[in-house]
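Researcher: Here's a chain I'd like modeled. Treat it as a single chain, no partners, no ligands.
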Amino acid sequence: MAETINKSEEQWKEILSRDQYIVLRQKGTEAPFTGKYYANKEKGIYRCAACGQELFSSDAKYDSGTGWPSFFEPLSEDKVTLKPDHSHFMERTEVVCSRCGSHLGHVFDDGPAPTGKRYCMNSISLDLKKEE
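Model: Modeled as a single isolated chain. Structure tokens:
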């Protein structure tokens, strides 16, 4: 696992755009069908937009019909941390970057084989490093 990155909220505000800060650091959510990666079919590795840690392969990406980029698994289990989320009167599981603690989205148990998981991520939380 990569070394943990710890920055103050003021430092994150300097690094991230306003919209990135709202999602990555304040657990916001972008509107469905608006993010740059929800319908993207390019091959590569999706990284954390805050710290650059590699998170998901395009090989695990699928169209969930939800309007957000969805993956059936991370590159490895140590790339993300799962946390209980009881906000908005719902029972969900939050997905955060294990390296910098930034909010990425949520994971649900309604995904395809082979895992049955749907890692429903915010496009703004990701940065695609395209395959060459």
